[in-house]
């Protein structure tokens, strides 16, 4: 899957070289107080449909991505020329005004024998202006030629080809502006979730070179090259110890809400990577406001007994009154559930 | 001149706020979700979104994140937002902005909580109803009206029916008034949890498992719940079998509980009509589970109970749910009191005679009966630990100050 994606990008990059389009990101649109109606107005892409980034816009990947109904995510970052981002050990980079994080959600359906076409669903933007992040989503049209500003969210009933080759149906939800905030809220601010240094510290296949993303960012003059950056354990890497993998998975999928100051801090369940208190991680923690989502289990995590633990129960429910995460998920993430079950079993 | 300038500035501000305060009217349509949600997002401070009479079926959770707006229906039973076919979202309506007023509508059959307000200041619920229409069921959502981590909370003239945890639940909040409201057929009718400065009055809590609960729980961002006044309420016939899913703290509340205070300090319960509750009219208890939280104080203190009118209670105690009723029934040998304190005190204070006065203070409650347990005698064999001497706990009442909401 990953290889396919990289091939796809090489293909995109070749195309961009061939088409020789010279243009740039429109900083005045990025910084304007009102968001434009069309995604193309920003100028982030030299080819919208093929998602070819404009010069100055870099694609990137995360060691641990957030699960969103098996959607493929094409990520790009833009930092205005001459500006740079500040490093924080446990937080995302502090990006300068005029920066944009661009994420297109798609079902690429790119297996060789795929019965379905590629489908771009939405492109979510986080734009830094006036010292604060603004969030917005653009929904792709049927023709896949343009994405349009979306306020109230949208339901896209569609299908995609799963890794197994089966076709899966999904009620994909484009979040509304408020729902974006539910996950991206930190105290009174909106913050990106993924691009922490330690979650970027891996190689990426740019054009024809594979190189470390942070090295590339420092080559661009975006970040400090002198820092010895940490690396996040890859939850999908079976050679890493189980505890680190599970905590890394929970960090990216749950830790943005389940963190002091996050949307779910009322529960006292904190799943960010740096939380060390056993009860707050969920071990023998009684539910606070779970209601029927407790499924009559007494603890978030009952060591040795995933089948009696609330956490995996909520991860594999599709009932909106029970499921976790609360939004951005229609399907179960089977691999993630298996990991958490294994982790709790091993305790 | 300076004065004039200020006056004209005031006029200017007044005018501009009047000019910009829009009223957006919405009626039931083919896609009510998009229409309402878009209006809620595009609204600006001072605006009102009006929902006309009718039935709105919504598949996704609504949310308000704009300061200073109002969502107003036609009447509490006239505008119904139904979530019977909800596909996404953990509640019916979520509020995350300040100075929001919700008024005159019903939220029906939400898959999770009905209305949650998180981390907001100055939220008003006026004549709002939250209801699960299928009767008590553990499949109903947990909370009806659910402000949490909020300040200046007003719940007035509301109705909460059928919540599998608490109908009206105020958690980890500060400056709270719950009045003129009705909670019925919930597990807990009205619950004030881990909160500071709450006035709960002129409410009716009936047909719940427990009428009014004042709790403090460990390992939460805000704890040490205190200063709660429960007065002029009608807390009667709360005899619905406990239908909370197991694991939840209210799952331990026995059917037939009037008022239950757990681990709070400075609670004043007065002028209430409490009766017909089959297990106990008022119980004051310690949080009895293990916790790693060293900051947490599991013991209640300074609980004042006076001038209440008690009807019968304890005539059909729920011996199936939790430990409370069982212990009480055993100790009282079936002669159940109106007021119970479990007598559990910190070990360091076990020999102190001041403890009782620091925990529970009784005023005049007519011919109410009382039961407590002496912890020392409880630990020694052959001694009867039961204390039934009401007068032993009578003391001077120091009324708590009334709660005043600060509005901007």
What integer is the average pLDDT of chain A? 90
Strand content of chain B: 35-45%
| Count of spatially separate domains of chain A | 2
The computed structural class of chain A is alpha+beta
Poorly predicted ranges of chain A: 13-22
Number of helices of chain A: 9
Biggest interface pair, residues each? A-B, 48 and 54 residues
Compose a concise summary of this entry.
Chain A is built from 9 helices and 14 strands.
Could you characterize what this model shows?
The complex is a heterodimer of chains A (347) and B (408). The longest helix of chain A has 18 residues, at 2-19. In chain A, a hairpin with a 4-residue loop joins strand 1 (45-47) and strand 2 (52-53). Chain A has 2 domains: 2-219, no CATH class; 242-346, no CATH class. Residues 13-22 of chain A have low confidence and may be disordered. Chain A contains 9 helices and 14 strands. Chain A has 347 residues and is of the alpha+beta class. Chain B has a domain at 157-408. In chain B, helix 2 (32-42) links the parallel strand 1 and strand 2 (48-51). Chain B is elongated. The model of chain B is unreliable at 1-17 (pLDDT under 50). Chains A and B meet through helix 3 and helix 7 of A and helix 2, strand 4, strand 7 and strand 11 of B.
SSE topology:
The complex is a heterodimer of chains A (347) and B (408).
Chain A: H1 2-19, H2 27-31, E1 45-47, E2 52-53, E3 57-60, E4 72-78, E5 100-107, E6 119-129, E7 132-140, E8 147-150, E9 154-161, E10 167-174, H3 177-184, E11 185-186, E12 189-190, H4 197-200, E13 203-206, E14 209-212, H5 213-219, H6 242-253, H7 278-281, H8 310-315, H9 334-346
Chain B: H1 2-20, E1 23-26, H2 32-42, E2 48-51, E3 54-57, E4 60-64, E5 70-72, E6 79-82, E7 88-95, E8 100-108, E9 113-118, E10 121-131, E11 143-148, E12 151-156, E13 159-161, E14 166-171, E15 174-179, E16 182-184, E17 188-193, E18 196-201, E19 204-206, E20 210-215, E21 226-231, E22 234-236, E23 257-262, E24 265-270, E25 273-275, E26 280-285, E27 301-306, E28 309-310, H3 324-332, E29 339-341, H4 355-359, E30 360-362, E31 370-373, H5 375-379, E32 386-387
């Amino acid at each position: 899957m990953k290889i396919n994606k990289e091939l796809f990008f090489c293909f995109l990059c070749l195309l961009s070289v061939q088409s020789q389009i010279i243009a740039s990101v429109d900083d005045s649109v990025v910084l304007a107080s009102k968001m434009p109606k069309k995604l193309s107005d920003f100028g982030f892409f030299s080819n919208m449909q093929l998602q070819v980034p404009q010069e100055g816009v870099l694609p990137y990947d995360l060691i641990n991505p957030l699960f969103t109904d098996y959607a493929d995510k094409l990520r790009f970052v833009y930092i205005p020329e001459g500006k740079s981002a500040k490093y924080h050990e446990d937080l995302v980079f502090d990006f300068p005004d005029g920066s944009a994080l661009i994420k297109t959600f798609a079902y690429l359906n790119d297996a060789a024998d795929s019965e379905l076409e590629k489908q771009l669903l939405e492109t979510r933007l986080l734009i830094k202006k006036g010292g604060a992040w603004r969030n917005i989503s653009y929904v792709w049209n049927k023709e896949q030629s343009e994405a349009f500003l979306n306020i109230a969210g949208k339901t896209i009933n569609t299908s995609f080809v799963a890794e197994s080759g089966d076709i899966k149906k999904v009620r994909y939800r484009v979040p509304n502006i408020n729902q974006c905030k539910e996950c991206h809220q930190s105290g009174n601010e909106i913050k990106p979730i993924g691009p922490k240094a330690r979650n970027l510290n891996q190689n990426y296949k740019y054009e024809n070179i594979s190189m470390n993303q942070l090295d590339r960012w420092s080559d661009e003059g975006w970040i400090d090259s002198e820092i010895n950056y940490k690396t996040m354990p890859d939850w999908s890497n079976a050679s890493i110890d189980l505890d680190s993998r599970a905590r890394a998975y929970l960090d990216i999928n749950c830790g943005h809400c389940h963190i002091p100051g996050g949307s779910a801090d009322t529960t006292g369940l904190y799943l960010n990577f740096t939380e060390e208190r056993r009860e707050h991680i969920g071990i023998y923690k009684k539910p606070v406001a779970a209601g029927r989502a407790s499924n009559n289990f007494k603890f978030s995590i009952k060591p040795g007994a995933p089948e009696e633990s609330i956490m995996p129960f909520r991860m594999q429910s599709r009932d909106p009154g029970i499921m976790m995460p609360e939004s951005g998920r229609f399907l179960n993430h089977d691999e993630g559930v298996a990991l958490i079950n294994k982790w709790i079993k091993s305790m | 001149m300076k004065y004039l300038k200020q006056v004209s500035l005031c006029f200017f501000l007044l005018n501009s706020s009047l000019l910009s305060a829009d009223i957006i009217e919405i009626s039931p349509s083919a896609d009510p979700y998009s229409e309402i949600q878009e209006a809620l997002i595009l609204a600006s401070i001072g605006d009102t979104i009006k929902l006309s009479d009718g039935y709105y079926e919504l598949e996704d959770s609504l949310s308000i994140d704009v300061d200073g707006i109002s969502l107003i229906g036609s009447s509490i039973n006239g505008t119904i937002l139904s979530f019977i076919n909800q596909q996404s979202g953990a509640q019916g309506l979520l509020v995350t902005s300040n100075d929001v007023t919700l008024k005159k509508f019903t939220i029906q059959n939400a898959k999770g909580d009905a209305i949650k307000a998180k981390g907001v200041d100055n939220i008003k619920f006026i004549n709002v109803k939250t209801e699960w229409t299928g009767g008590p069921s553990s499949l109903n959502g947990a909370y009806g009206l659910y402000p949490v981590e909020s300040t200046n909370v007003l719940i007035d003239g509301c109705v909460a029916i059928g919540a599998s945890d608490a109908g009206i639940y105020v958690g980890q909040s500060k400056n709270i008034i719950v009045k003129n409201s009705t909670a019925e057929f919930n597990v807990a009718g009205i619950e004030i949890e881990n909160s500071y400065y709450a006035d709960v009055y002129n409410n009716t809590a009936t047909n719940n498992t427990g009428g009014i609960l004042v709790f403090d729980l460990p390992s939460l961002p805000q704890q040490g719940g205190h200063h709660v006044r429960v007065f002029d309420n009608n807390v009667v016939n709360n005899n619905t079998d406990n239908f909370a899913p197991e694991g939840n703290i209210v799952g331990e509340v026995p059917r037939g509980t009037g008022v239950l205070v757990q681990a709070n300090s400075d609670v004043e319960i007065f002028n209430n009509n409490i009766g017909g509750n089959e297990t106990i009219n008022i119980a004051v208890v310690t949080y009895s589970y293990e916790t790693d939280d060293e900051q947490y104080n599991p013991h209640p203190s300074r609980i004042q109970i006076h001038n209440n009118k008690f009807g019968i209670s304890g005539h059909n105690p729920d011996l199936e749910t939790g430990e409370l009723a069982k212990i009480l029934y055993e100790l009282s040998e079936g002669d159940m009191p109106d007021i119970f304190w479990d007598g559990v005190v910190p070990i360091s204070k076990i020999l102190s005679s001041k403890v009782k006065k620091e925990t529970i203070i009784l005023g005049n409650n007519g011919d109410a009966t009382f039961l407590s347990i002496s912890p020392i005698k409880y630990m020694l064999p052959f001694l009867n630990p039961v204390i039934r001497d009401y007068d032993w706990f009578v003391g001077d009442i120091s009324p708590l100050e009334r709660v005043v909401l600060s509005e901007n």
